[in-house]
Amino acid sequence: MLAPSLTQMLSEAQHQPGFCAFYDECGRNPSLGDTLIPPIVPCLNYSPARHLTGEHYKRFKEVCPMLDQGEENTYGCCSLGQLTSLERSLSLSKGVLNRCPSCAENFAHMHCMATCSPNQTVAVKVTKVMNVTYLGQPKDAVVAYSAYINNQFAETAFQSCKNVRLPATGGFAISTMCGRYGATLCTPQRWYDFQGDSSNGLAPLDIDFHLIKGHDTTGLPEGVIPYNGRALKCNEVTPSGSEPCSCQDCKDSCPSLPPPPPPPAPFRLAGMDGFLLISIILSCVLICAFLLYVFVSFRMSSKKKKDQGGGKRKDKTKDIFQRKIHPSEVLLLSAVVVAVLSVGLKSIELTTDPVELWSAPNSQARQEKDFHDKHFGPFFRTNQLILTAPDKKGSIYDSLLFGKQNFSGIVSKDLIIQLLELQQKIQDLNRTASLKDVCYAPLNPSNPSLTDCAVNSLPQYFQNSLENINAKANMTELGVTKEVDWRDHLIYCLNSPLSFKDITALGMSCMADYGAPVFTFLAVGGYEDDDYTNAEALILTFSLNNFPREDPKFKVALQWEKEFLKILKPERNSPLSRSLEDEINRTTAEDIPIFMISYLVIFVYIAVALGEYSSCKRLLVDSKFLVGLGGILVVGCSVLASMGFYSWIGIPSSLVILQVVPFLVLAVGADNIFIFVLEYQRDVRRAGETREQHIGRVLGHVAPSMLLCSLSESVCFFLGALSTMPAVRSFALYAALAVLMDFALQMTAFVALLSLDARRQDKNRCELFCCVSVSAKHSNKPNEGFLLPLMRKYYAPALLNRYTRIFVMVVFILMFCASIFLMLHVKVGLDQELAMPTDSYMLRYFSYLHKYFEVGVPVYFVTKRGYNFTSEEGMNAVCSSVGCDQFSLTQKIQYATNFPDLSHIAIPANSWVDDFIDWLNPGSRCCRLYTLGPNQGEFCPANISSLLCGRKCMNASATSAIRPSVELFNRFLPDFLGNRPDLQCSKGGLGAYDTSPVNELTFLVIAASRFMAYHTTLTNSQEYTAALQKGRELASSITEAMRKVPGTSPDFEVFTYTLTNVFYEQYLTIVPEGLFNISMCLLPTFVVCCLLLGLDLLSGLLNLITIIMIVVDTVGVMTLWSIDYNAVSLINLVTAVGISVEFVSHMTRSFALSTKPTRVERAAEATANMGSAVFAGVAMTNLPGILVLAFAKAQLIQIFFFRLNLVITLLGLAHGLIFLPVLLTYFGTDLYSHSVFPASSVAPLLCVCI
Hints:
Organism: Oryzias sinensis (Chinese medaka)
Distance between the termini: 119 Å
Mean pLDDT: 84
Low-confidence stretches: 304-323, 1232-1250
Main location: membrane
Strand content: 5-15%
Helix content: 40-55%
Pfam families: NPC1_MLD, NPC1_N, Sterol-sensing
Radius of gyration: 41 Å
InterPro entries: HMGCR/SNAP/NPC1-like_SSD, NPC1_MLD, NPC1_N, SSD
Structural class: alpha+beta
Transmembrane segments: 274-296, 592-613, 625-649, 655-678, 698-725, 731-756, 806-825, 845-863, 1075-1095, 1101-1123, 1130-1152, 1172-1192, 1204-1227
């Protein structure tokens, strides 16, 4: 209650120039409890303004220079004590506003006017006083007043401050000065209201700011004239000579920049897709050219006599394969060779680290990662939990302070408490590893406790205290009294997470218990605009320090994460830094049985299909189970020998090799086995010919074809090892040697095994029961089986009909041209979701990540050694505050955030240089020196009393563009980096920057530095790749500009580093690299085919064209079937070339050796004889095994092994058995045009072992 005399005094006080409403100090505000700074209030004192002279005037000029009229004419309404308190209060704001001098001056201007103006009563009306006893004397303390300000002044002051940045967070300073409204909803009235609200813990008394528009006098007390001083615009020079604010803090200071060029428009011709039009034109040209060729050929052939062919073509490669060695010796020698090579498996290294698999050690991203990890340590490990409650209904809360607010079902007290209990349960894990042993503790990295660990969650707004969550208090606002609780506090903190005290009667802090703010996007997700309490998800994040894999602490972190996973159920959407690797390893182990079943199906098929089955009585005699098993063992031994050899020489293996190489070698080996065994079964032993001679003669006929395919594939894979991708290179090396070993073992061990089996069969002994013989004799007639007669009698004639051939050519030409069009639209990349099994909890996490997260991954702009940060030019080319270059490092990053859809950067970079400069600014309390005590002359933190620290680190600058000398820079930088930020000095570098600049103290140079920004939310590999590319373009532009700064080394460089760069860099070059690898594979197939067909260039060319068509059509179908192009696809495409050789080269050679008179007849013979073997050996061997893979859990296997291998096999089959025979009838070589394998070939290459 006010005494009657006071009430009368307030009502009778006149508002006239030259008079004060209050003067001097009356101690603490008795109406306030705990506050962040002492709430010193003035004494009611209606009296004339005082003439300020001497020390009083000097102090007044320092604190409120905008009111200075010279010592002779300066009057004021504030004492020295008031000036000291005002300076202390302003220093808190100046710490964040000084980077924009006009803003800092406007802010001080308003408070100086209300506190010290000689015309105080004209714009101020005291509304509440209280009786206090101060220094033993009764006083009337002013605890509330109204200030009347012209709207033009308020709006200009607000506009000068609204864009001032906080470099440490990338946000806006005004977000900490506008209460619950944050930066987005802040207005001049809300800005001033917060400053005048004593409940925020900073204002010493209540100030009701009235913003009056123009000359509107409605409601104004008599004599009151709204203050209308001159507020500075942010792009103006201050009266003291300070430079205009920088572009980052003031949009009006920004240069006029043209918008970045948009992405290139789609290629169009005649108003349609240009590639589609070209594909249509190409198909028309090829079809017309083909039809013209057919017409001309028909007219010319009708004038000629029918070709009288029939001469015998000599295949000089036969003789190479007819040598004799005893089977048991060959099997023993083969076993010894395989065993010797396989011993190397004891030293096998299995690479599971994705970085080692897909990023070459000398790649740019890998070198950048190594540089970053060397100087700053590996990126910390993230352990995250996302909680949703889609079925829980929300509610509407009518808040006393904030009005009606929507609260979603997940933002409820019971769920927040459950989250807190889960968080505490995880924090208390201490079985084999405690959280404090491995956690990231930014503000106490040397000796952290559990409360020092960086845990970001919504309960942190309540300092993880159940008592705070349950806290309630009654509060009166505008005459209305209501209860405030956790909801009011949460609304405030979500909008103002940097606050040390809310504006409710609860008076609680929003800061986390580890001392840092929890930004809204780290606590909740799935909200629209700023409707935070209506969020759809709560987010809990544990950040752990990361260590090199060889560091013992790395295992400790893994063990803690293992215990973390035991607590959480998979459906809780809880990913760890290890989760990707764990889930990939889990699904690999779970899918091993699928691969085993696949190989078993292939073995059963081979064993059954190789049998002759002439009669039921000879079923066990003519079966080929052991031969089939021997063929599988040959494949297995070749793979083991290859892996053993490379393990000997130190080339690591991978899961891709274990999964793909056996499949590839099995396809190649089974084809050769079928060709050899079926040819042996179809051939009749000649009179007087021994069994060994018979096998040798058959082998001499088919081995050159086997050599052609195996050599082509092996050389193809060896050249594929030129790839820069470690996984592709190691796969190619393993596959190349495995194919060679497979051929060598087939020519030795398998032939010996077949010889032994033929001996058993000749003696009519059962296969599995060698002691049992049957009476039925083996027929000496050739066994053509089922497939050969079918293809000879029905398939070949139907395919090679005149009209069918034209139809086939037209269809395949259209298919090829369509695939070219589709190939140009294939998506490049590999989304990490595809690496997860279909039942993985990580899939739901990725879905929630894209749905609920508001920003993406951090991106660091890293500087290398060679730049002088200590010079004024060096600082100006990096910083973004007043006096900095308009195109500095941080300013260019700021420009990029203006176009997030193109740059993929959402939040500007923090800047230790900017905050270091602000920290040194004498206008703040951050950098002071002890003037008393044993530490005299040393750095004094801001929380130490000014009585002990009376000296600033730097003197005030006339221009306010504070720049330390080289000596001061080097002296105070360590103090800045070790200074813990607090309310008195929010610019301390500990936590935010203590690892950002890496100092080489011996040479006093900064060897490395980094500036952290944030990407936009990136949802797929295409966006990650685009972000990497745009980041590198921006870093290159920054590098070029900074190299022009005097003293900069010519090799100085700025690069971007993101944790994901090493995975997505490959997609910047994978298209040209893929073309190179596939070209390197195609080249040997052409060369080897030409050589082994007696320099038959035409056959080699047709062979090459068909394989190219298979590869192109495969990529086209990849587009249709949503199979992205990536490193795994590239491995499969390289494999496709090898398998295509099997489908094509055997047919081409068979056609070249045929002695039939016409091309059509020769094609028919090749289709029937060799086509049936290829169909049975390649297609029917692969297809059953591939179909089994459809049941794998891993999406990676389903897509890139089942789908893609199915496409490759079916397209290879179609081109090899449909298109190629037709193509040969039109363009195949003429009879007698070449001798297969030139006579100059000497030296037996291989020997038949019988």
